[in-house]
Design brief:
The structure holds two protein chains of two kinds.
Chain A lengths: L6 E2 L17 E4 L3 H13 L4 E4 L2 H10 L4 E5 L7 H11 L5 E5 L6 H8 L5 E4 L4 H11 L2
Parallel strand pairs in A: 2-3, 2-4, 4-5, 5-6
Antiparallel strand pairs in A: 1-3
Chain B lengths: L10 H16 L4 H34 L4 H25 L7 E4 L2 H4 L2 H10 L3 E5 L6 E4 L1 H18 E2 L2 E9 L2 E9 L2 E2 L16 H11 L2 E6 L5 E6 L12
Parallel strand pairs in B: 2-5
Antiparallel strand pairs in B: 1-3, 4-7, 5-6, 6-9, 8-9
The chains are: A alpha/beta, B alpha+beta.
Chain lengths: 142, 245
């Protein structure tokens, strides 16, 4: 997986270059590389075209270039964490569902507030339950 | 992979020791939070690794399409045990934010009393739940108490066989007390091969103590003649007539 640029699972290209132009895709943002790789594979296996990035900054850059249909982001990441990313995305794309993955408690005050203020569509706990996460994404996969 | 291929002897003892240590921590102001702060980064990394492990097993299972399903089933169960254990450990150490609501004092007993009694009977013992008769209100977090007490009682039911136990509540003056008494019975030691790899219920006592602590409670544990646990809360209970409309 590329160190610095966005990567489509199985390749290192932008979505446009991989035949995803005009197609739906899921953006996964996760700084823990093994989790990112495995999660991408699981979701591709379930039929969700995925673009996987390792930081909030990469996610923002990608969204400027092409808007995903759903964003699945980790909470704890350096510099731009999942909540900052969610707030930024919601301020620009109000209809874009952002699902937060977290190893913290689900009723953490910051997370609860972001959910109340509708920055987050859903919150899921880590370790991820694969069946639950696919069902969850399905709800927003329009 | 079979259970008898893993040497699980000592795992239960290790968890019981950890439970005892955490129970000590639970009695110190700021003790669990200090552990949580110290181990926060470790827990984060641990959960990330468990996450990739869980996802890998899921992918592997789907790739094999029904082959080695027993092994995958066992692997899933072991992983689930491990995740529950980590979850329990973290629950003890995390700061507890209570959602206090004024409710009948025994509300957290009434829902589960018959289920607990049945569980106790299955183990050849008896559990009596004694609720106070007069209606007394108390301000507490029902969800936390119910969850903590439920895990504790299920753990005790698994730990001892043929035991007579009693759970009772009192409201005396300006304090509420909750008592747990065990009499007779013998400690149940399942063979290593039959034990869960990581029985998260072993940690139910320190979690219960944490919840009590968060409610401003004190406690005394005595294991000399059966397991005895007494909680005391200074938060005054109130009669329903004293409650503002």
């Amino acid at each position: 997986m590329s160190e610095s640029s966005q990567s489509l699972v199985g390749s290192t290209a932008l979505p446009e270059a991989d035949g995803l132009a005009d197609s739906r895709f899921l953006l996964i943002v996760e700084d823990h590389e093994p989790s990112l790789l495995m999660l991408s594979r699981v979701l591709v296996h379930h039929g969700f075209p995925c673009v996987a990035v390792k930081s909030g900054a990469e996610a923002l850059a990608l969204c400027d270039a092409r808007r995903p249909n759903v964003v699945l982001t980790d909470f704890s990441m350096p510099v731009i964490d999942g909540l900052i990313l969610a707030r930024w995305l919601r301020s620009r794309y109000q209809e874009l569902p952002v699902i937060l993955m977290t190893a913290n408690e689900l009723d953490h005050p910051c997370i609860a507030r972001a959910f109340r203020e509708r920055d987050l569509a859903e919150i899921v706990a880590k370790p991820i339950d694969c069946k639950k996460i696919t069902t969850c994404i399905d709800q927003y996969w329009i | 992979m079979r259970r008898d291929e893993c040497d699980l002897s000592g795992v239960g003892e290790l968890q019981a020791t950890l439970g005892d240590v955490l129970a000590q921590f639970a009695s110190l102001d700021g003790g669990p939070e200090a552990v949580h702060a110290t181990l926060g980064e470790f827990f984060h990394e641990l959960r990330n690794r468990l996450n990739s492990l869980t996802l890998s097993i899921y992918l592997g299972e789907r790739s094999f399409e029904g082959v080695a399903s027993e092994q995958f089933s066992e692997l899933n169960r072991i992983t689930k045990d491990l995740i529950q254990f980590v979850e329990s450990f973290q629950n003890i150490c995390r700061p507890i934010r209570l959602k206090r609501v004024e409710l009948p004092l025994c509300a957290f007993l009434s829902e589960s009393a018959s289920r607990w009694s049945s569980l106790w009977q299955e183990r050849g013992g008896q559990l009596a739940v004694e609720e106070i008769r007069r209606p007394v209100m108390w301000e507490y977090d029902l969800t936390r108490w119910s969850q903590a007490l439920d895990d504790f009682i299920v753990w005790r039911a698994q730990a001892v066989r043929g035991c007579h136990a009693k759970l009772s509540c009192r409201a005396d003056g300006d304090r509420v007390t909750i008592h747990w008494r065990e009499q007779g019975g013998e400690r149940h030691e399942a063979p290593a091969a039959a034990r869960p790899v990581s029985d998260h219920l072993e940690l139910s006592l320190p979690y219960l103590l944490r919840v009590a602590r968060a409610h401003g409670g004190n406690w005394v544990i005595n294991k000399d003649q059966g397991f005895r646990l007494d909680f005391s809360f200074q938060h005054p209970p109130r009669m329903p007539s004293e409650i503002d409309p």
